[in-house]
Amino acid sequence: MPSPFRFTSPVDPTAEGGRRTAVQRELARAFGLSSAPAEFRLLSPAPALLDATWVAVRACLVTGRAPRTARELVAAGVARANRCAPCLHTHARTLRAAGHPALARTVRTGGTPDDAAHAEPLAWGAATATPGAALPAADHLPEYLATALVCHFLNRLAGALLTGRVPRFGPPWRRPARLPAGDLPGGAGATPPRTALAALRAVAMDADHPALTDAVRARVRTTVAEHGLRPPGGEPTSRHPAARSWLYDALTGLRGADRPAAALALLTALAPDQLAAADVEFWRSTAPVGISGDADLLRLAAFGAHTAVDRVEARLAPPPRARTLTGGPEQPHP
After folding, report:
1. d(CA 226, CA 334)
2. Torsion angle of alpha carbons 207, 209, 213, 216, nearest 10°?
3. Where are the alpha helices (DSSP H) in 175-276?
4. pTM over 0.90
5. What are phi and psi of 134, to 5 degrees?
6. How many CB atoms within 10 Å of residue 250?
């Protein structure tokens, strides 16, 4: 069976030994599934990125005081709006494992829950992906925001780097004792969301990675700031050359390995569905020796994904703030 990832070798979540296996088991338990979701297995070649992402997801989505079911619905709304089928699949399966089969089916098929307590967080999550959208009122705004931010990050990585169709809603899943019917577990977490998100940002933005030259960083940040969360014109899921004219314009003036590296990061940030195998292979063929592996690919994609997350937060976080939830500098709202 071909790998579901855009990697040179199959992903082995246990390759790093006991720590990798433990993280995968924690992820499976947290989502009520028989194995870790694909969007997390994707990160296995970059252990530090996987660990930071899991800590952030645990702090923002799994633990905390806001109802877990509501945060799963926020996450599902973000995945819907970003057209991230793998992540939407995970949140629907988790809702079903928690004893909400009808709600899970509604979420998966694009419907609106009848219960306002379920419809509102789903709509809130979806609105975070639409520039200029008015966000519905929320009783747990800080936790909803934290959940949305980490999901925007994962959605972009999964949308760009997972390949193939996600199977229709079905097995394998399980209903562990820790996911009782009625609601998902909450409680106070050991790591505050702000701390976990700041740590994730530090890993994702990786100031020392050699593929992320100053020229690449500057071009990605400038382009995302200019276009917001969507490329200008066309359909963001289309791979027709005309739909990528925005990308060719954004790469003007870049030379050598910087051009494919910036393209990979920009596609992950603004149009994950437009990233093609040819983009990845072109980057691999031009990258300097020693930095064209799967971990390097994830680092480039993570930089692009989190540059978009910074933009999401700048629009959503209520001012005044000296620092954002993710630890990045405050940016002006559009």
Report:
1. 10
2. -90
3. 193-205, 214-227, 245-250, 258-270
4. no
5. -80, 125
6. 23
Chain-centre distance for alpha carbon 25: 20
| H or E element that contains 119 | helix 116-127
Helix 116-127 to helix 141-161 angle, to the nearest 10 degrees? Answer: 60
Q: What is the pLDDT along the chain (334 residues), one digit of tens a residue?
A: 456 888 988 877 666 566 778 888 899 999 998 889 999 999 999 999 999 999 999 999 999 889 999 999 999 999 999 999 999 999 999 999 999 999 999 999 999 999 999 999 999 999 999 877 777 667 888 899 999 999 999 999 999 999 864 433 333 334 443 464 345 444 444 689 999 999 999 999 988 899 899 999 999 999 999 988 888 875 666 667 778 899 999 999 999 999 999 999 999 999 999 999 999 999 999 999 999 999 999 999 999 999 999 999 988 876 554 456 787 765 544 4
For residue 110, which of 92, 135, 124, 94 has the smallest C-alpha distance?
A: 92
Tokens representing 30? 């947290």
Closest CA to 316 of 175, 180, 124: 124
3-state SS, residue 326: coil
| Element of type H or E holding 308 | helix 294-316
The helix (H) or strand (E) run that includes residue 74 is: helix 68-81
How many residues are there in the chain?
Answer: 334
Give exposure, 206-243, as e/b (b: 16+ Cβ within 10 Å).
beebebbbebbbebbbebbeebbbebeebebeeeeeeb
What does the angle CA 114 – CA 118 – CA 120 come to, to the nearest 5 degrees?
A: 100
Distance CA 255, CA 215 (A): 9
The reply to whether omega before 47 is within 30° of 0 (cis) is no
How crowded is residue 59: how many other Cβ atoms within 10 Å of its Cβ?
Answer: 25
